[in-house]
Design brief:
Four copies of one chain form a homotetramer. By secondary structure, chain A is mostly helical. Chain A contains ten helices and no strands. Chain A is 65% helix and 0% strand. In chain A, helix 1 (30-46) packs across helix 2 (53-60) and helix 5 (104-121) packs antiparallel against helix 10. The first copy, chain A, binds a DNA duplex (21 and 21 nucleotides) through residues 16, 18-19, 31, 52-54, 62-66, 68-70, 73-74.
DNA sequence: GATGAATGAGGCTTCATTCAT
DNA sequence: GATGAATGAAGCCTCATTCAT
């Protein structure tokens, strides 16, 4: 799904912005990627609002005006970044959900591991998604919100499945999903890449807690 | 603790800014409270950056210039709000930790319940604290960060205590604290006041999950 | 009638832009008048597009940003100017039409004289109205267009009246109105204030031509 | 007459711009014509300033950069259009003036008919000439202005001739010319192609008015 | 002839803050 | 205490034009 299907008249950023006669192959030019990366870096470091278009231009070694060959607007840039990030989360989780012969428990473990792995290996992007998407205008924000809601739904499905199969003993699957997802999403707030903790380790600890709780037996 | 003890030369906002003859009694005038409330409301609704000083002035029925009789700067206003919010969390949790004759398990339950109660009954303020504090300049942000770090420490203490007493079976008390606190902090992202779920209910579900996990036995 | 009644959310420029709690007395502050005059002068000399907000600010000795205490936007400034201009034309012509005991012939003569007098004594404003209004955005332009259409209607009424009374021998009152009004509107294109020709003289010549034609008898 | 005879060093647009080996035969390539047509259409619809070079490129299916193989500058394009338009008016009127054995009255009738016919059948071009030429820079504008002045002279000659021959009873031939030409030039402001009124009809009505006036006898 | 990347100047507007009244 | 005029810096974006490929 392309971002602009949700938007009125926004450029896609996936096709050449000038002429727009080329077929959309979701080809993102190198320069576009470079710009997106620069933006991610800066948005993560300084925040969306504190990052000026000039900053981004400087980072990629272009004139401010030249940036606009590749982006539609600063806001659109943020949208692209957030969209790609949440999409990756969604796609991966869908893949896990689609697997047959997997217990709900196992799905949950994998969901946690997957989320943390993706989250931590793309920490900057995840940070931008979770911290800056709110800076989007209403319409653009809605796009991300919907995808984010869907992500929650997928988690909820796992918990409902576990409940239905008798694997999980929970009253509110959705609330449980919110607890787990909340804990996972919070990671961008404290995880430092430099740290000694790997995503795998965090995932193991989180899984243990969410599956069996903290209580000694 | 006063905010400005962490800052170099910032006005406090707690003492009369003009004349400075009054003793600092942390007296906040009605107007100041009114302004802070307006700011909380607007910061929560539109975000800190999207809220102009004019917006705040309009909300309290003052002219932009008149606001500056009561606040030092827009940023300071945000700092006050965030500071007060995190301080409340800290104070309450300290009170819980200080209670004698309470099992770690019970302390954890209370900590969760307390956090969710405060969080949900001051949803706007909590949102501003958790979502907008990042917009503070470096120095001001550090103030909040330190208090926030301290809050995490308090949670960690509970978990360490539980581990030491053999109540909790955990390898990484801090990581456990981060999981639990993350889940709790995430609440501002999805909780709707209008909803049918009370803070108590959420607290119960969360406690169950964190204490005993999701697995059926 | 106030301009903004036709517009969605445009500031009026007639009331204080800040606070907007004052009653609208169509009070235009001196500064606002000064700015409007400067804009008229510059728009007439260089054209709307070639005039920058900076130019206007320079002309009134204000900083660019300070202008925005008095105007809503550059376009709004143009709208105000054009609106006031066409309104004056309309009001005067309505007054002429309303007079009893006046032959159509006499009304036409007065309409011509009035138009030329107003036009020539406010040559800059008239020029802006007739030459630059097209630079307005669609919505704003429509406002002016409607008033302009109304002005044509008033002229047409005179000619229809003359026809009905047997004073005028014309098949297409509206076409006649367009001819006469066109000739009168064209004046801003060639009239030079410095010239020796007074508005009265031009009016006399025009009246003669339109009433009796050019043919010798 | 070539446009650039009036300009210092401007490219003509009539000769091949690259290589300049070709003789100037006022050869306008198909592409150039296509571009000019696109420009006329857009300038008429949106105005010169609101039309970007990109718009024109889009209209002809070229890249922005490629346009510059055919035009010297956006402004030059406008100049060409306006120049061609006013030249046509001039040439036709000169032809009428040159006819022997024609009364002044008949010349005037033909001048009016000719102007309206040309004007209405090239309504877009005429609109651009009369509405947008002012957007030209000083030097370029002067070129058009001179041709325009000349056009007025031609009209004036008709009226002077009529006066000299006793056909017309007018004091100010030039003023009369301005009245008549003004009315005729105004046509682009109200004429709608879709309308039921043909140029011939308008011409008849206008001629009647200017020759015999509006008064019933 | 065509492309499209790149330029760089300039445009309009917003806004937190100050200060004289 | 209150006002509102003024500031000035900064921000995002547009666009005509050039030029290497």
């Amino acid at each position: 799904m392309r971002v602009d299907q949700h938007l009125q008249g926004a450029y896609t950023g996936h096709e050449s912005m000038h002429g727009a006669r080329k077929v959309d192959l979701s080809v993102t030019s190198n320069k576009q990627k470079e710009i997106a990366l620069a933006a991610v870096k800066l948005f993560e470091q300084k925040g969306y609002h504190a990052t000026s278009v000039q900053d981004i231009a400087d980072e990629v070694g272009l004139q401010k005006g030249s940036l606009y060959h590749y982006i539609h607007s600063k806001e659109d840039l943020l949208l692209q970044i957030a969209h790609e990030a949440i999409t990756q989360f969604n796609e991966q989780l869908e893949r896990i959900l689609a697997e047959k012969d997997l217990s709900a428990r196992e799905k949950l473990v994998r969901a946690i591991r997957n989320h943390l792995t993706v989250s931590i290996s793309n920490l900057q992007t995840t940070t931008v998604l979770l911290r800056e998407a709110f800076s989007l205008g209403e319409n653009q924000h809605r796009v991300i919100q919907e995808l984010t809601d869907k992500y929650l739904d997928l988690w909820t499905q796992i918990l409902e499945e576990g409940k239905a199969r008798g694997e999980f003993r929970i009253d509110h699957p959705k609330l449980a999903a919110l607890a787990i997802l909340g804990a996972c999403n919070w990671v961008y707030r404290w995880y430092k890449t430099s740290g000694e903790l790997g995503a795998e380790e965090v995932a193991r600890v989180f899984s243990d807690i969410f599956l069996d709780g903290v209580t000694a037996r």
